[in-house]
Write a structure and sequence with these properties.
Blueprint: E1 2-13, E2 16-28, E3 33-37, H1 44-51, E4 59-64, E5 67-68, H2 74-81, E6 84-87, H3 99-109, H4 114-127, H5 143-155, E7 161-165, H6 173-190, E8 193-198, H7 201-207, E9 210-215, E10 218-224, H8 225-229, H9 235-240, E11 253-260, H10 268-276, E12 281-290, E13 293-302, H11 310-318, E14 322-327
Parallel strand pairs: 3-8, 3-9, 6-7, 7-8
Antiparallel strand pairs: 1-2, 1-4, 4-5, 9-10, 11-13, 11-14, 12-13
Helix pairs in contact: 3-4, 3-5, 4-5, 5-6
Length: 330
């Protein structure tokens, strides 16, 4: 649904050139929620603005639902943008318009008649749970309600793609969860493809099917969450299940076991201890529900050297678990 290929974008400042995006490529499948995560200044906002050409790339192509936006003339681009809704961090509502008036704005701009605007705006306000606030003004709403209006406005023209630019970063944790649940609901009910950018790993955990890590304008890692979890050395997977610093091994072997799907409910540790007569210490664990199933990482200390633990480590790997040795006897 979204294809970004070899996109670069530079900005000039004080005689120097800064790469906001540097040869960025990613693919978002129809109907999935795709998260792009990175710290401030990593290039996230430039990327999402490049996808609807609010920022035109210096090079590369952007294709949405079969339309190569970077090749369209202004009229063609305006038409193609009707397939794309966008939700902003700071809501960007018009203070002088009611909730319903804000939702109708985009429809008004593209020439939808009054009766149809009213019908569609009430339909979408019902979907986001705000039809009872249709006559209220933005100043009368909470932050979460304002963002629901922003989402309704983005959905009013029935787009195929929803872009979310840090839509939850200005909200408290409980409101963030409710907005993310709403995004998931509309993703399922409307078959909407969603690309969101965030600096919060909890957002990726809660709703994303796939994710990409962006640093210094480059995509350094990307893929479906279930694949990343089972990828050795994946930084995104480690950030999904943080265990803190690895302690000294003190003459033992420290391993981290990553599990997901069918491996999540097995009594792996107790079976291993019985089978090999090991006194296993659990040094840490992080478990999350991702994509409707449990996944996580457990850090274990096995007595003895890596060589002495070759058999139990092999056993774990043969069970389909990702096993990484993170500490060993010197």
């Amino acid at each position: 649904m979204i294809s970004v290929r070899h996109v670069s974008k530079t900005f000039q400042s004080g005689g120097s050139t800064t790469y906001a995006l540097n040869d960025v490529s990613l693919e978002v499948a129809p109907g999935e929620i795709y998260g792009v995560i990175g710290q401030s200044g990593a290039g996230k906002s430039t990327l999402i603005r490049a996808i609807n050409l609010l920022e035109r790339p210096d090079s590369g192509t952007v294709t949405v639902d079969g339309d190569e936006l970077t090749a369209l003339n202004p009229a063609g681009l305006r038409a193609a943008r009707r397939k794309i809704g966008m939700v902003f961090q700071h809501f960007n509502l018009l203070s002088g318009r009611t909730v319903q008036g804000n939702v109708e704005l985009g429809l008004e701009i593209i020439g939808v008649d009054g009766a149809e605007r009213r019908r569609r705006s009430l339909e979408i306000l019902d979907l986001v749970g705000l039809v009872n606030k249709r006559d209220s003004y933005p100043s009368e709403l909470s932050g979460g309600q304002k963002q629901r209006v922003g989402i309704a406005r983005a959905l009013a023209a029935n787009p195929k793609v929803l872009l979310s630019d840090e839509a939850t970063s200005a909200l408290d944790p409980e409101t963030t969860r409710s907005i993310l649940d709403l995004i998931k609901t509309i993703n399922v009910e409307l078959g909407l493809t969603v690309l969101l950018i965030t600096h919060e790993m909890d957002v990726v955990k809660r709703v994303c099917d796939s994710a990409a890590l962006i640093e210094g304008g480059r995509i350094v890692e990307s893929g479906p969450i279930v694949s990343l979890i089972s990828t050795p050395g994946s930084r995104l997977a480690h950030d999904l299940f943080p265990l803190g610093a690895v302690p000294p091994s003190d003459g033992n072997t420290i391993v981290e076991i990553t599990f997901s799907g069918g491996t999540a409910d097995r009594p792996v540790i107790s079976q291993l201890a019985r089978a090999y007569g090991l006194d296993i210490s659990i040094l840490g664990a992080a478990i999350e529900t991702i994509g409707g199933s449990q996944a996580g990482r457990t850090r274990l200390q096995l007595p003895g050297s890596v060589a002495e633990n070759a058999a139990p480590i092999k056993d774990l790997r043969e069970q389909g678990l990702l096993v990484e040795i993170v500490g060993e006897a010197s």
